[in-house]
Amino acid sequence: MKKFILLLAGMLSAYGVKASEPAMPDSIVRPVTSHFTYSIGSALIANTYLTPLKYHGWGMLLGYDRTQAMRLRPEKLVQRIAAGLDIDRTENPAGNASMWRLTGDFSYGVNYRWRLPYEITVAGGVSTGIDLGVVYNNRNGNNPVAVEAAWTVNVTGAVMWRHTLVGKKVLFTYRPTIPLTGVFFSPDYGELFYEISLGNHSGLAHCAWWGNYFRMENLLTADIALGGTQLRLGFRNSILSTRVNNITTRVVTCAAVIGVGGTWMSVNPYKGISPDARIISATY
Predict the structure, then answer these.
(1) Does a structural domain hold residue 23?
(2) What is the number of other CB atoms lying within 10 angstroms of the CB of residue 10?
(3) Domain containing 181 — which CATH number?
(4) 154-205 pLDDT, tens per residue?
(5) What are the distances in angstroms from CA 276 to CA 8, 29, 176, 180, 273?
């Protein structure tokens, strides 16, 4: 009995030593890369619900972009959050009427990436996004407002190239986004929103496909490392084309992009980063 008690005490003692050992630090750190941007350029708006004419003018966009490697297979999978607020002001050919467009969008996507030689990375995946906005024509007295609303599932991708230019690290990135399917809003031709408010809700939601809803966004950027901060310069092109219920919509914008951002890591101040930790970036 005495031997059994001594053996049990030894086992408990050994277990206590193991239990008191500190937990192994996280072996993978996933930095977040984010940017705030401002875009300014030209805009074309055509909306036959409001007018048969094409309006030309300027547009600007306030944007936010965030990328991070995922917990699941961080070497291969990257998640991206993008949001923007778009404001466009256009005029008719005679210059005596204006049309404003205010839209907001939010999307979340996941890309699978391949690292190639010469510090080139290629990625492809899917995203889902929501777009909401209004178009206002000050010339219309009876029905001056059109609504834009859509939820889409998109094909996304990226081509990235890291290069040293004039002694500065520069990341060149091209990102296209094209919706595959989804749902978007459109009333009947000539249907007033007053009629909709009275309960005429039939035929407002439509399945989106390339035959009635096409959208493509092209974003080309260069992120220049300035110490711990990144200066983003680039070009953005967006095309929206819809045709349903005898209503045609065209919105085309081309804009220069300037922004600021950086890369940061969420670290426990009491533990810090283990010297054995692997840092897996979302951009290289």
Answers:
(1) no
(2) 10
(3) 2.40.128.100
(4) 999 999 999 998 889 999 999 999 999 999 999 999 888 888 888 888 889 9
(5) 37, 10, 36, 42, 8
